[in-house]
Each structure stands twice: as structure tokens, then as C-alpha cells.
Design brief:
Layout lengths: L28 H29 L2 E6 L2 E6 L2 E9 H25 L4 H4 L5 H5 L21 E8 L5 E7 L6 H14 L1 H6 L8 H10 L11 E4 L8 H11 L2 E3 L4 E3 L5 E5 L2 E4 L2 E4 L3 H4 L15 H6 L4 E3 L10 H4 L2 H9 L11 E2 L3 H9 L4 E5 L9 E2 L5 H13 L4 E5 L5 E6 L2 E10 L1 E3 L7 E2 L4 E5 L13 E9 L8
Parallel strand pairs: 3-22, 6-7, 6-11, 11-12
Antiparallel strand pairs: 1-2, 4-5, 4-19, 8-9, 9-10, 13-16, 14-15, 14-16, 17-18, 18-21, 19-20, 21-22
């Protein structure tokens, strides 16, 4: 152990790179040695180089605040996180199992609703779902796949076991940052990539494009794929531009499209009208078609749902898929897997308490100082209560919210999230992390899971909030071959 790592400890938490005895984990041994040989001054130089790369590459994200739209450089920590390939394969299998069952669940809800008739899933949860779209009942997209792209958030507990924290099935974002993190790492640590076998993440765009092409209603021709964005003011606009460019797809806004009398979707181009076969939409359901959903929407295309129902265009994720992107529905996923697949969940949920249940609600209200309370359909870390760090007034406010609308809230214990060494003030310091891998599903084909994902890190000491919109950062995630983990 050299000077850079001297004193690094993360007592009470599972650390991604070091074991409880302060020794490097197998998947990180070579990395730890090489980073230590570089030392703090050189690592600070590499961080400066990373910051300049991020600036020159234009990698940004947008924060919504009272002051308006703030565009910020992507926060990146140069110390990567490693996971052994064999461990990752188990995670991958669990994610595919989970998304397979969720797609069957969504198809069932818009079909026969057998899971409700059989008493496995409560009807009242569905009836009070804000993301269930009655307009989608009876529709069957290709292969009954509704959630073509899913981003599931994973955390480790104190024992190092992975848990699923939530599933993002509406418009999951972050994949561009996962790939850009890798590009920045390669720029600032070229020697590390020569000496390690790190599995790639840059195949995501081609996998996504293949999956989108497979949805085309005109399989006999090369389909026209468009990425539909809300526009430059959306927090994920960087990613929309990036993905469209990587796939060679047209980047469009709702006003760039129209639905003609033949119920087909066309794009207005300088070459005239061009039919669109597949739309990867990054616009929420409520805004995609003012004929069907919000009539005041300026982001969508009138008639889009009509074209989709007629089978003349494919939409990913399918409208209505967000019904499973609900933190109350999340609590039922182990039962959903058991019901549709006859299997036990390979990746467990974090223990959850549903406030719509009287007994569980009473427990939550009595233990707000120990729990994290989440609204059913918020994202980005907004609208939640971290009980142990909240004030009495904040806990009282949430108690009132829960009593007024119990269906909208669930709670979980505060997990001892794992940590990873992070470069803070020239030293390696433990900071809590999570991980968002991305799962792509296609009709009749195997599911694709990224090799790793977007590791988000809470940059403030002791903080559990990893969202970039709330001060979090990110790291490159290395899935390393087991037999090469110890490297040169």
C-alpha cells in the first residue's frame, strides 16, 4: 500500500474497492496499485485533464432551479469503480428476469388483467395509478414489449449484496453519461486501458438501434427511426442529441412531425415529407399527443396515438409503459416475477412499506425518523424525505402528506449504501454510490444489459443523495474479466 491510499477506510460500509481489512478486492488489485503509483499530484493533474475534456466535449446537464435553467458541466470523479465479470453476469441475469416479468405485467394490465383477477396485484393500486393509460387498453405492441428501454437503480447493502432500488420505465436517462465517462477515462488514463481487460460500454447505441429497427411496421425496408425530444430546455437534451447522433437517427420535436389522413407519421424535411417508422420518444405520455392526452401540449404530435394504434408507427417506450414505473408497483415486483415466470427474483427489492396499507402506514408514521419516504411517481430525488436527516417540521409535513394521500407514498429503511474511493481535496475519501444499468428489450430477441452502468456518487460526505441535479457526481464503472482482474 503506498501513500495515496494510506488511511483510506470506510468503516461500517461495503466498499467497492477495499475489503473490511483494508485490502484491495480482487477486481481492483491492479487498479489500486497503479493509481497509487501515480500518486495524488498526478491524479490531480489527471482530474484537471478530465475537466478540460468534459468541457471540450460539451458534456453538460441541466438543473431546474428557482433561478431558471442552469447548464452545468458533467460532474465526474476520475477514480473508477470495478466489478468482477462473474458477479456482473449474475446481476445481468437478474435484470433480464425482472424486465421480462415487468413487460408481461404491463401487457397483462392492458389486456386481460389476469394478475388482478387472480388476486396477486390489488385492483385499487391500478385504479389510482396516474400512469395507467386507459387509452392503451387492448393495444398489443410488437412482441408485447412495452418497456423497450429500462434503467434500474441498484445499490449494495452492508454485506455487498445488490438490491434493486427502483425501475425507470418511462424515459430513463443517463446512458450517454455512462459512455462519455468511459471516453473521458480513456483520455486521461490511457495506460490503464492498455493493462486491464475492461468490458466495453460503447455498443449501447448499436444495440438500441437494432432493437428499434426490429419494431418497424415495414420490416422489408430499412426503417426511418426518429428520436423525439421535448427540446433544448429539457434537462436531458444533451443525451437526446448524443443518442440521435450515435444511432444516425433524426432528432425531431413534435412540431417536426405530422400524421396524415393515412394514419402514418411523416417528418417535414428539406427533401419533402418522409415517413417515420419508429419513434424513440423522450417525451412523457401526457404530452406526446394533444388529441388524446393533454390538449394544451406543445411538445407532441396530434394523431400520434392514432398512428400507433393503427400499427403504422412503433413508439419506444410504448405509451402506458409508465404504469410499472411507480414506486408502489415496485414493491410488488417479486410477486410479479413469481406470477409470470414461476421463479424467485434473482435480485431482491429493498424492503418496502406501503402507506396504503393501514398497518404498514402506522409503522411508517411511527418511524419517520428511521425511514426514507418516497412519492410514487417522482424522480430525480425530488419530493422524498430522508427521515434520519430531516427536521421535526419536515417529518410532520410528510406525516400529513401521507395521511392525506396514502396511495402516493411508500417507505424504505435507510440502507448502508456502499462506498467507493473518490478524489476529494487531493485524497481518496469514501463516498456513497449507486448504479444504473440499462436494459434493452426487443421482440423475439435476447435482452441486452450494458456492461456496468452509470455509477452516481454522493460527493458530500455522509450524503446518500447521488442525483446530479442535487449535487451528485459520477464515475466510470469497469466490469473486469475475472482471470485478468489482477492485471499486469
Amino acid at each position: 500500500m503506498n501513500d495515496f491510499w494510506q488511511g483510506y477506510r470506510s468503516p461500517g460500509f461495503f466498499d467497492e474497492l477495499f475489503d473490511d481489512n483494508g485490502l484491495p478486492r480482487v477486481s481492483a488489485r491492479s487498479l489500486i496499485r497503479q493509481l497509487g503509483e501515480l500518486g495524488a499530484p498526478e491524479l490531480l493533474n489527471r482530474r484537471t485533464a478530465a475537466d478540460l475534456s468534459i468541457k471540450s466535449m460539451g458534456i453538460t446537464f441541466t438543473v431546474y432551479s428557482d433561478a431558471g435553467m442552469i447548464d452545468r458541466a458533467w460532474p465526474f470523479d476520475v477514480l473508477p469503480r470495478t466489478i468482477g465479470e462473474s458477479e456482473w453476469q449474475r446481476v445481468r441475469d437478474g435484470l433480464i428476469q425482472r424486465v421480462t416479468a415487468l413487460n408481461m405485467f404491463i401487457a397483462d394490465l392492458y389486456g386481460d388483467q389476469a394478475i388482478i383477477a387472480d388476486g396477486v396485484f390489488p385492483r385499487e393500486v391500478l385504479e389510482q395509478s396516474v400512469n395507467f393509460r386507459p387509452e392503451c387498453v387492448g393495444i398489443r405492441p410488437p412482441g408485447d414489449i412495452w418497456a423497450h428501454i429500462c434503467g434500474s437503480d441498484l445499490v449494495r447493502d452492508g454485506n455487498g449484496d445488490f438490491y434493486v432500488l427502483e425501475d425507470n420505465l418511462r424515459v430513463p436517462s443517463g446512458v450517454s453519461y455512462m459512455v462519455e465517462n468511459r471516453l473521458v477515462s480513456k483520455r486521461v488514463f490511457p495506460e490503464l486501458f492498455e493493462q486491464h481487460t475492461i468490458l466495453p460500454v460503447d455498443d449501447y447505441a448499436s444495440e438500441l438501434l437494432d432493437a428499434l429497427n426490429a419494431l418497424s411496421p415495414r420490416p422489408d425496408i430499412t426503417p426511418n427511426v426518429a428520436l423525439m425530444t421535448p427540446g433544448v430546455y429539457n434537462s436531458a437534451f444533451f443525451e437526446h442529441v448524443w443518442l440521435a447522433g450515435q444511432m444516425g437517427a433524426e432528432l425531431v420535436q413534435g412540431s417536426d412531425l405530422y400524421v396524415d389522413r393515412d394514419d402514418c407519421v411523416y417528418a417535414r424535411t428539406i427533401f419533402g415529407a418522409q415517413r417515420v417508422d419508429v419513434i424513440y420518444r423522450r417525451v412523457d405520455d401526457a404530452f406526446i399527443d394533444p388529441e388524446v392526452f393533454r390538449s394544451d401540449s406543445m411538445l407532441g404530435t396530434p394523431g400520434l396515438m392514432r398512428a400507433w394504434r393503427a400499427g403504422n408507427v412503433a413508439i419506444a417506450n410504448a405509451p402506458g409503459a409508465g404504469v410499472a414505473d411507480d414506486k408502489v408497483v415496485y414493491a410488488f415486483v417479486p410477486e410479479i416475477i413469481r406470477y409470470y415466470l414461476g421463479e424467485e427474483a434473482e435480485l431482491p427489492n429493498v424492503p418496502s412499506y406501503l402507506c396504503m396499507d393501514a398497518d404498514q402506514r402506522a409503522y411508517v408514521l411511527d418511524n419517520l425518523d428511521k425511514l426514507v419516504v418516497k412519492p410514487a411517481n417522482e424522480s430525480g430525488g425530488y419530493g422524498m424525505l430522508i427521515g434520519p436527516r430531516a427536521t421535526e417540521a419536515e417529518r410532520a409535513q410528510f406525516a400529513d402528506l401521507i395521511k392525506r394521500n396514502p396511495r402516493n407514498y411508500m417507505a424504505q429503511p435507510t440502507l448502508d449504501l456502499s462506498t467507493a474511493p473518490t478524489l476529494i481535496d487531493g485524497h481518496a475519501a469514501p463516498r456513497h454510490v449507486d448504479l444504473r444499468p440499462f436494459i434493452v428489450s426487443r421482440p423475439g430477441g435476447p435482452g441486452f444489459v450494458t456492461m456496468g452502468g452509470l455509477t452516481r456518487v454522493a460527493l458530500r460526505e455522509g450524503s446518500l443523495v447521488v442525483n446530479s441535479s442535487q449535487g451528485g457526481g459520477s464515475k466510470d464503472t469497469w466490469i473486469v474479466q475475472d482471470d485478468a482482474a489482477e492485471g499486469a
